[in-house]
Amino acid sequence: MHSPTPLDIASLCLEYPRALSVQKRIHEKIDDYADYNFSSLQSTALNVFFDLAQEFDSFRDLMTVCALVPKVFFNLDCTLYMFQDHRVDHIVICPERGQKPTPASDIPSFSTPTIHEGHYYLPIKGNKDLQSLPPADSENHLIGILDIYPVDALSDHDRLFLEKYANRVGFQLHNRMISQKNQEHILFIRSLVKDIGHNVIVPNMYFKLFYRRLESTINALGELAGDMRQAPPDGLSVDDARWKQLVAKMDYVQDALQDQFGEIQRHYDNTSLFLETLLRRSHFEQGRYVLEKRVCNFKNQIIDPQIARFMTQFEDRGIEIAWAGVPDKEIEVVVDVGLITQVYANLFSNAVKYAAPVRDARGRWVKFLSYGWEDMPNFFGIGLDGVKLNVFTTGPHITGEERDHLFEEGFRAGNTAQEPGTGHGLFFIRQIVELHGGRMSYEPTPMGNNFYFILPKEASASPLLSQYDSSPSSPPSSPHNSSPDASTPS
Questions:
Q1: 380 near 480, Cβ under 8 Å?
Q2: Pairwise CA distance, residues 388 & 375, whole Å
């Protein structure tokens, strides 16, 4: 074994506060067991229960173990009642004393250990850290009852042991029940993924063919209008007013259809990209987002299509676009195009909702969105360059207290009350950016708010984000004013 280096020692000390906390609980448990003063037989019963709980895979066998341990070790009749899906299952070891078990329909739901009609009823509660998960009762967190008979044979110390035994039974049963539910969910998801591929993804591909045919028909209408201009039917001339009106109407119909087709095509392209990206089979098989990286041009393949998609909404909200950064510069990064496209879709969607007018340096009210990028040499380490991508909107700053929670699941800032939302968008963005080895953050600027993320330029870059707590940016000029006070981040 090698002698620990300073780096080894530092790494061991990172979790020292946690180790102290765990060590404290160990000593507390030692004291607890000293107070319990369990007999050798009782300690052996607990050890056997733990071993067999890991050995038997069947839930029915686990329930049988729970009911048999009191019988085998202490000659106590034991019935285990489980509350599942609005029914009561029970395991009973046929009693030898002529005592019939309480009917499952009549079992009392005691929330504390209770002696009742010669029986000792022990509530079985699940893992306290998993009480929000089924099948725990929402009020008392009960998952079952352990019925011990006869109670007359039990001393106070015996009842204490059985209470602790019931606690351990509840922990094991609850974890096993959740495990079974998870397995059922996994099987369902696998089946669902196949259904999605067969009934959603594949049929969606046929729409491409339909759109091509529709586009061909629209183009044919335009060609027909051109032919009619050159060769009007008998009795009409190219200068005839009625003929000009008819051709103009055909041009209008053709242009309108072309515009509508363009809108539908953009919607289809985005929807198809999102469907095929989010519903990838690999996501479901591995239980997380799985990247499919390739080199792409951010402006042409990701940003421009999303600007076109949201342009109507920007115009409806009176939001102007500031072409920030270096729009003509080719910026290529290795990313998952579908997922990063959804990052921009979420940021632009937020811009539609939350961009607000502010006064520029000349005192005029302005309301705009700005986006851009800049190189970040060596951001992820020596020779590991990054690129910072910004989406800025005018409006009041997000308060200091809220900034720390912006990227948490379900969090919504105070300025969101009038807009619909779930608080998932920024959390999703952070997930995707970090999955790419990048960093997502927010910074207030003189005229509004800048949300930015920094990605490694190379697919193999290993981020060392903790070494870089700040990344200053150079703000581009506002589309309305070149004054520094009216600038926005690039």
A1: no
A2: 6
Report yes or no: 143 and 180 within 8 Å, Cβ to Cβ.
Answer: no
Distance between CA atoms of 212 and 279, rounded to whole angstroms?
25
| β-sheet bridge partners, residue 388 | 374, 454
- Counted residue by residue, the chain has a size of 490
Q: Which residues lie closer than 8 Å to 410 by C-beta, 6 or more apart?
A: 422, 423, 424, 427
Alpha-carbon distance of 326 to 476, in angstroms, equals 9
Tell me the β-bridge partners of 148. Answer: 78, 120
Q: What is the block-wise mean pLDDT of the chain (490 residues), using blocks of 10 residues?
A: 45 64 88 91 94 91 92 91 65 53 61 89 80 53 87 92 93 87 81 72 75 86 80 69 81 86 83 83 82 87 90 92 62 87 92 91 91 89 91 89 81 63 80 92 91 82 38 37 35
User: By the 8 A CB rule, do 114 and 145 touch?
Assistant: no
Res 471: pLDDT: 38
Instruction: Report strand pairing: 439-445 vs 368-376.
Output: unpaired
pLDDT for position 84 = 66
Residue 178 pLDDT: 85
pLDDT of 463 reads 42
- Is the separation of the CB atoms in 122 and 143 below 8 Å? no
- Distant-in-sequence, close-in-space partners of 461: CB < 8 Å, separation ≥ 6: 380, 381, 384, 385, 386, 437
Q: Are 423 and 412 in contact (CB under 8 A)?
A: yes
134 preceded by cis ω (within 30°)?
A: no
pLDDT score of 1: 45
DSSP assignment, residue 125?
E
What beta strand segments (E) does 336-468 contain? Answer: 358-359, 365-366, 368-376, 386-394, 439-445, 448-456
Cα separation of 406 and 347, whole Å? 13
In the DSSP assignment, the letter for residue 280 is -
> How many whole angstroms separate alpha carbon 373 and alpha carbon 386?
11
Q: Rounded CA gap, 122 and 95, in Å? A: 18
Structure tokens at 193: 């993924």
**Which pLDDT score is estimated for 406?**
84
Task: Report angle CA 130, 134, 139 to the nearest 5 degrees.
Answer: 85
Sole residue written with tokens 């589309």: 479
**Placement of tokens 């950016």 in the chain:** 433
| Structure token pair of residue 8 | 């080894």
